[in-house]
User: Fold this.
Amino acid sequence: MAWRLILATLLMAAPAAPAIAQDATETKDVERQAVEVEDRVVLDADNAYVLENENLVVAEGNVRAEYEGRVLTADRLTYNRETGRVRASGNIVITEPDGTERFAEEIETDARLANGYAAGFSLRSIAGETAAANTAERRNETITELDRAIFTACELCEGQSTPTWAIRARKAVLNEETGMYTYRDAVFEIAGVPVVYFPYFSHPDPNAERRSGFLVPRFGASTKYGAFLQPRYYWNISPYQDLVVAPAFYTKIDPLLEFDYRKRFYSGDVNVNFSFTNEARFDDDGERLNNKAFRGHLFADGRFRISDEWDWGFAVEEVTDDLYTDRYDISGENDRRGIYYSQPKTLLSQLYTQGQSHNWYVDASLQTFDNLQAQGLREDAIADVLPLINSQYDLDLGKYGFVSLTGSAAFLERVAGADSRRVSTGVDWSTQRIIPGGLIVEPFAEGRFDYYDLNDFPTVDETSTITRGLGAAGVKLSMPFYRPGKWIDLLVEPIVMGAVASGSPNDDPIPIEDGAYYELDTASLFDANAQAGYDLYEGDQKIGAGISAVARWKNGFEVSGLVGRRWRSEDDNAFDVPSNLDGTVSDWLASFSVDVTENFSFDAKLRLDDDSLALNRLDTALDFNLERARAKAVYYRIDESITRSGIRQEGVFLLGEVNVTNNFLVLFELQREFEQNLNIRQALGIAYEDDCSRFELVYERQGTQNRELGPSESIVFRFGFKTIGELGSRNFD
Assistant:
């Protein structure tokens, strides 16, 4: 007969606790009972007895002891009533309140099951980390010291004895208060093979709060600056701000110092990345081209809330040299900061405010630009925007439709060149009616007034003001035909838009600042004014017509498309061929898309010549995510007849990875321009990935020439490890 005992110890509550047996050999049945006493251990076992001579309480068989949420299970447990020490042996598991589990062959601990000594120790955290040691000593509630320890975040499958990666150390300390794992005489192993030795190494618990300490360094080599090492120190200044200090040391050039600073305020946040060095300009072989000087970069942004409806913010992008970020491989040049994007190789600094509610929107900004390209506008010929303002207020008139009031202003100033100041106000009205038979009727009207103050423009006098009033009125008609089916639903909708607008609106010599690179596509095919921006306006009588169709299968598969074109009564020389608004008839426009749930999508846009139907432009994008393959492909082709440079453009961008096995992958990337016979970028590599790590070995080639920085080849190593971050190199040119 199995004997079971539950005691709310008495046994462990006080050294003078009364005995429950008369002598060392006598064992008595105890009726099963559940007793809960504050600050006492609850003990459950198949058999329990007291050895009076040794003053020991012994529990054997499926032992379970619990204290304040901490649970110990073992084959055998003894409790010394005089010293208050607990010894356990056989299949020991201690489960913490947070789910962390500790295992041992034998332990000695205090009555609270918190502090003690263990042999054959191992630990598994709720995040999946595993630590093991010959012996372990838990000094208090937060510190555990390990001797001859090994740590990994990889889960070992049945029959597997070697993790993908591990840290093996002579001594290790797990500090649960600070959330840090520290090691002495540590060796980093991959698949059981020692890779690198660290006299001292530490990393945080991923569930712990952030703290100061060294991050994994960056290292590698390049023909530009030779071998390099960039240690990184993270300084947790306060709960609301931190700083990463990262000096970079090179064999060919002088060091560089980089900083990343972040601070959060009650109303917003600030991010700053900057670096500086005292060095000459150098080419892609590391040869110095001039004298040393202080050089650097600054990328910073911040956004702050004024009220529930209003924000303000800023963005700063500055470099001392056009090629500084390319020379030192500084990232972040094309990141979005503020409410406006910058163009490639163009730095944008801005100060702005933005407000929005359910029926109004306002933004105002000051913008300055820096050109980093070898060719193009001179720095002093690029206009600064001081300021740019956009606003809109919407009114719901109920059965009478909707009205939008708009206002805009743009003040452009150049150090060398023309200045312009524009102020515009407008009003738009539209409504919708469905008449018998299902015809959707959407009448609309719009009006706008523009004021220009021009200075030094070649098309006007030295100083000139221009005013103009613009307007259009028309109607948009559509007739959707819907046919539900057993397997597929079909929707076909012919659409026609007709409008009458101001005649010859672009006759005045107004400079084209905001619409120079616009091109009509299906998104604006049925707009009253198909030209974006304010400087150009599509006037006269016009018609936009097309037909859209959607097919939806019951399993989620969907195919949709739109085709149409646009007509205008008068030719307007202000529109060039690339805009697709030249002449009186636009090219044919079409869009097509296929969507197969989350696994596959395809989009295409076409522009066909209005006379010959020759393909003038094609843009396609393909995304698929299958069980063993993930890829993105983009193909474009633009005929020389519609490019502003008069040069045909054709290229492709491919990016993807294929699982050869469950763990090994092939990586590929290609960006190619066919007309120039140039591979702008290409990469091919292999990777290994499991639940705790990812290793990549990739060959890369950059094919472009940017002044003294020419094409380069690289071998890139990237190692990513769960819980301890990234370890590896950057480019090996």
Residues 5-211 form a domain with the lipopolysaccharide transport protein A fold fold (CATH 2.60.450.10). DSSP finds one helix and 42 strands in the chain. The first strand starts at residue 5 and ends at 8. The first helix runs from residue 324 to 327.
